Amino acid sequence: MSDDISLAERFEAERPGLRAVAYRMLGSLAEAEDAVQETWLKLGRTDVSQVKNLGAWLTTVAGRVCLDMLRSRTSRREDPLPEQEESVRLPDPVVTQLGRVDPEQEVLVADAVGIALMVVLETLSPAERLAFVLHDMFDVPFDDIAPVLGRTTVSTRQLASRARRRVQGAAPAADTDNARKRDVVNAFLTASRGGDFEALLAVLDPEVVARSDGGTRVPSVLRRGAADVASQAITFARFAADARPVLVNGTPGVVAFAGGRPMSIMSFTIRDGRITGLDILTDPDRLSALDLSA
Q1: The domain boundary residue, chosen from 125, 140, 170
Q2: Residue 121 or 220, more confident
Q3: How many CB atoms within 10 Å of residue 261?
């Protein structure tokens, strides 16, 4: 019994890191929890007495579970892929109150895993995503990843390299100073509420891309260019009675409310002081599943 308790305690110590792996792999908070639970069940069915590094072993097991889930998801997918403009599918956001310290949430979105990066990860093949996430984000050696994929170490290294090029090309480095980013977000909100089109143009990058994921009940929208995005922002501001600053995946964002109910979660990508990307979750079903009451 004491050995079981000890193993359970060791697993709980690894749980936040395993959730972080699963979230990056799956982009879904609920599925990430399922993957972690399946990892626990696999641990209970395995003799790990000879395992020297339980954390590393659990990470690769969680990776394998997520890989199977991704492959199952891909095989039954009927919607357009995320990179196709006919559909917009955003990953689940991790929303945190300003000034609130939540160690588990910090682990979940450490290393600047913003919504924009998560969107790019969605465009990778399951094998590419596993190789990139485990190696580039969690320093798992290619020799340990290769058996999970059923590939050689050289082939696994090539997968990660290909994924890395796609990530770097589609999600270049953004500003990192949260105080300065908050100023940009506030300027965007002030201009939107005031219907100030010129002020919005000043804060938006000319090539800004705005993605709105409305799920199955609200039309999804993809807009390009400062003028189009500014016009939509002014229209949207008329319906949002209350917009509250939060952190979305560790970076300044906004939750908008109407009639006391969450209407949207907005995540901003900011580069050189201008908004280059705006990701908006408006799906009523997914918004209701998040605890945004505070």
Answers
A1: 170
A2: 121
A3: 10
